[in-house]
Design brief:
homodimer, about 350 residues, alpha/beta, Spore Coat Polysaccharide Biosynthesis Protein SpsA, Chain A, five-stranded mixed barrel, three-stranded mixed β-sheet, 11 helices, 18 strands
Chain lengths: ~350, ~350
């Protein structure tokens, strides 16, 4: 079969997007860019039945209701409910365990924004082709700035629609990131991966035998209710959490990448939300009803209360319930350290 | 009798203090500095029975309930309810018409802040002494900056506890204000006046005979319910509105001033509120429960919703009901021009 199975990961608390992102409805499930949630956008990007089969969704128990609510009513899917968060490697391995070994998985975080879904779709096909040849494939996102917040992938020799991976690089400092951008041949690691389910499990068994064993055991002991699968909590609890990058991608000898330029953003903070939105000619974004007087580069996000602003530059103003956040744009990454996101229920 | 009659003027919409100041509860009646309203503070400043008699309050119909609610329960007073706003000269003349001609009136706007009530009290006595000698006395507030937002009074020869007025000066430009400050002998006109009721009416009759006649007629036709006096609306409506400064003080040959330094502020906008509040060592003011992270010179005023701020400088954040105002401190005077204060009911 030629279809790709989307594996949609619904982790990530999005504390830097507080107060809109809250424990009860975190980042993937709120409308940050456009009229649907990032989760729903991830589902919609993989909805072409000629390219994708039904998605496998991995989430925590807390968000099952939100997921059901936000999926299209006619959508078929399976939902793996993690008993607790253990980072991406166990989540992806669970999904792999639930699939045919030859199934081509496309692992997609549910909390990213992709402005160009056609480019995504094309890259997914290229990645799937390499995965069918038993490569473990990362999307390599074309960098447009010397970003220090992401890991990088250095490309190796050309291969099919992509490259071999020369190496994975940890988040660089500014000077290194600038070198990467100037040199070319480096791409951002956006956490989007394609591989055969069997190959992922095989590599995991090789590099993280304990984790692979525990995942297999947790899945074997799962409780299934229709399309909801709840792995055995005791077995799952034994797993030491680790990212798929550390556990597999940086170790495997079969790492490949497909380059892609698709208007990708991890929407990591309010400044990134601002970048992803269509701004007016002064760089402002605010819904109708708010008033920005002599403002430049200002983002207003509100749950309905009216924001009136005078003479502001480079600020994010976010209103949600009984919380108002005002942050300088270039300090948006510090929002997660405030009391608010760390004291909410 | 030696007592002073406070005449408390409750006009002024305070649109620059929106969204806390609203048509339904404007500037004099909200708690901007301290735990009581500016109106209540004006009443309390004149509450020493050894110096002051019961106040005469002048307000519009819309605020009668607020006034009653905010007065001390044991307070005796009379309340003149203007049928419509006609600026300060008719309001003060109405109060004068309600008093014995020899009564010493002390006209006090209800929407100012005075940090040093003892200095106010002392200046009131000095002004009353001059008023008893038939002078029309202005408080001359010692300037501490080259303010362009107030009218100035240039002092003349020394006389009793004050000076004759050499002349009143319109709001100056910056250079002129700086000259005034450097030269000395200039004080701010804070709209606080003392005179005998009879002298005020005599001078008004001389310089604005029509207004004096209409006020007398409106008061003669007043409807009285207990201590509430409602002048005849038809007669009052005929009056052309004018300030007491233009109508009388700038014309009279008997203008005097008493100098006073009493921590006065007209609380003209949110920056002035910020100045009047006790700031922390970074120049911030926020009630407990808000979080200011790396902020300098920031004012937070909220009706209860939590404000969280990161990396801000020189900003006012004001939250009230469904409105959030964020203004640069030095643009606070422009708040009155926003849609919000001009569209509220």
């Amino acid at each position: 079969m030629n279809l790709i199975t989307p594996v949609i990961l619904c982790g990530g608390s999005g504390t830097r997007l507080w107060p809109r992102s809250r424990k009860s409805a975190p980042k993937p499930f709120i409308n940050l860019v456009g009229d649907t949630s990032l989760f729903r956008q991830a589902i919609d990007r993989c909805s072409d039945a000629a390219q994708f089969s039904d998605p496998v969704i991995v989430s925590g128990e807390a968000h099952v209701a939100l997921i059901k609510q936000q999926l299209p009513s006619e959508q078929s899917y399976s939902l793996l409910v993690e008993p607790m968060a253990r980072n991406t490697a166990p989540a992806i391995a669970l999904a792999a365990a639930s699939l045919d070994p030859d199934a081509i998985m496309l692992v997609c975080p549910s909390d990213h924004h992709i402005a160009d879904p056609a480019a995504f779709s094309k890259a997914a096909s290229a990645a799937a082709d390499l995965a069918r040849d038993d490569w473990l494939v990362s999307f390599g996102i074309a960098p447009d700035r010397p970003e220090t917040g992401y890991g990088y992938i250095q490309q190796g020799e050309v291969m099919g629609g992509g490259y071999r991976v020369h190496k994975f690089v940890e988040k660089p400092d500014k000077a290194t990131a600038e070198q990467f951008l100037a040199a070319g041949g480096y791409a951002w690691n956006g956490g989007i991966f394609a591989f055969k389910a069997g190959n992922l499990l095989k590599e995991l068994s090789h590099y993280r035998a304990d984790m692979a064993g525990a995942v297999t055991q947790a899945f074997a002991g799962a409780n299934c209710q229709g399309n909801l699968v709840r792995p055995d909590a005791d077995a799952f609890a034994m797993i030491e959490g680790e990212s798929i990058d550390y556990a597999v991608m940086e170790n495997t000898a079969r790492a490949a990448m497909v380059p892609v330029s698709m208007g990708w953003s991890d929407i990591g903070n309010w400044a990134a939300v601002h970048d992803a939105l269509e701004q007016d000619d002064r760089g402002n974004y605010a819904a109708a009803g708010h008033q920005l007087e002599d403002c430049n580069n200002v983002l207003v996000v509100s749950d309905g209360k009216r924001v009136s602003a005078v003479g502001l530059e480079d600020l994010c103003i976010v209103v949600d319930g009984d919380d108002i956040l005002v942050t300088r744009m270039d300090r948006a990454q510090d929002v997660g350290r405030l009391d608010g996101p760390n004291s909410q229920k």
